Amino acid sequence: MNYRLSFSTSLLLLCLFISFSAQSQLRKIYLNPKSVARESQTKFIDSIRFIPLEIKGGIEKSNSHNITITDKYILLTDYYTKTLFIFSKDGKLVKSLNYGKLGDSFYPNYKEGTKEIVFFGSNKNYSLTPKDLVKIKLDWSNPRNKKYFKKYFLDLNDSSLTIKKDIPNEKDIVRLQPLSKDYYVQGEISVSSLYKDSLDYEMKLYKGNKLIKNFFPYNRINEPRYLYAREMIAISKSDTPNIFNITRPFCDTIYKLFRDSLFATYKVVFPLENSLPISFYTTAFKNKTEQENFHRNNGWLMQQLYILNESPRFIYFQVSYLSNYDSYLYDKQTDLTYKTKNIKPDSSQYNMQLFDTFGTTKAEEKFYKSQKAGDLLNFFSQNKNIAVPKELEAFLESKPPATMPVIVEFKLRN
Question: What is the pLDDT of residues 118-146, one digit of tens each?
Fold first, then answer.
């Protein structure tokens, strides 16, 4: 990833720094989780295309798949069967791999920079408590601590597409997230009485192996927000190359990060009934049971924002409440926010709900989600006047299993 900026990008950055230099100047996104206002999906989405997948290898047996798009492949992860399906970009099955034998804690994690799928998890021969993890992090250089974890990788540039063993390193255990070739962010937040000093930071920025900047201090011994829980900051690409959106646990502000500079850009305004009380930030729970009861009894209080996508016109984001989830679409032009559950498709978009709270991924300017073949078969059998897209004709004529996923590619309007 190259950090060289065009003149227009540099000018945009300068404008952002000037515009958002103070909290009072933040652009506000007003949210109403109880809103029942409806809107047509065609107002937001166009350029729908289907990628039917080869019916092979048992993929049709699951109803839910996580999608990853790489430069060469479409990857589908079935978490229920612990199977990774690797398809070519035209839907041909290249290989299926069962990773369940690695252990219960292993899941595929795509690393865009190295074109690798990484599986990192705990050694199933050991049972680690949260306190154990803190002790290991504090003494990671001790060779004896390496035995508690295992790591495997799949090189997508290797035509054999085989899972190979690797050696865990400190970046794995502290969950460093790569931003570019040289820049990394560490955003795991934890509280423990094992720490010798109280000061820590929610977000740490590294260049290579060197810590270059800290953001958002907190008390890592007894911070009320983070007792009895492990939290993470969230990172996503923004609508400007090499600039990332950052969101934090129990915080209603969206930040942007460029190199080692961080600045606030948006503030999401919740109704009072969805906002955390001041006491949540100042008074610690007596124990984990009390915390769990609070979460259960206040399930619609805001916990964290997750930016799913930002385009020049829209911000597509998810809100994690204490025990619920919802997703929203903010229109920058009209300054309106839509609850995606209330954005309804019609026959012009094959009655497909494309704004899902989970399961949608983005690559470049396009979104991808899976749709059951049965839904499409039912739609075209009930709407004979609507032509079947050419890319679906042969697939639907083959009478695929109802649960067989079809990849739907679409774009947001701009």
Answer: 999 988 888 888 888 888 888 878 888 88
Given a contact cutoff of 8 angstroms between Cβ atoms, the answer to whether 247 and 233 are in contact is yes
* Of the candidates 400, 391, 311, 307, the residue with the CA atom closest to the CA atom of residue 61: 400
Helices vs. strands in the chain: H and E counts, helices first: 7, 29
Burial 197-215, CB ≥16 within 10 A → b, else e: eeebbbbbbbeeeeeeeeb
Cβ-based neighbours of 272, under 8 Å, separated by 6 or more: none
Quote the pLDDT of residue 18: 46
pLDDT of residue 57: 61
| Burial (CB count within 10 angstroms: exposed 0-12, middle 13-18, buried 19+), residue 402 | middle
- pLDDT (0 to 100) of residue 80: 85
User: What residue numbers bound the domain in which 351 lies?
Assistant: 21-412
Residue 329 pairs with which residues in a beta bridge?
316, 338
In a domain, 13, yes or no: no
| Token pair in block for residue 3 | 């950090």
Structural domains of the chain, count: 1
Secondary structure of residue 385 in the 3-state scheme: coil
**Length in residues, the chain:** 414
What integer is the mean pLDDT of 137-163?
A: 90
Ranges assigned E (strand) in 31-156? 39-40, 45-52, 66-69, 73-78, 83-88, 93-98, 108-111, 116-122, 149-155
In a domain, 2, yes or no: no
Helices 373-382 and 390-397, packing angle to 10 deg: 100
Per-residue pLDDT tens over the stretch 200-245: 999 999 998 889 999 999 999 999 999 988 899 999 988 788 899 9
Determine, yes or no, domain membership for 291: yes
CA atoms within 13 Å, Cβ hemisphere of 193: 1
257-295 confidence digits (pLDDT tens) = 998 999 999 999 999 999 999 999 999 999 999 999 999
Task: Answer whether residue 11 is part of any domain.
Answer: no
Residue 236 and residue 256: Cα distance in Å, rounded? 10
- Encoded tokens for 163: 């899972």
Across residues 309-332, what is the average pLDDT? Answer: 93
Residue 169 has a pLDDT of 84
The closest alpha carbon to 338, from 369, 354, 315, 306, belongs to 315
Residue 368 Cα to chain centre, angstroms: 14
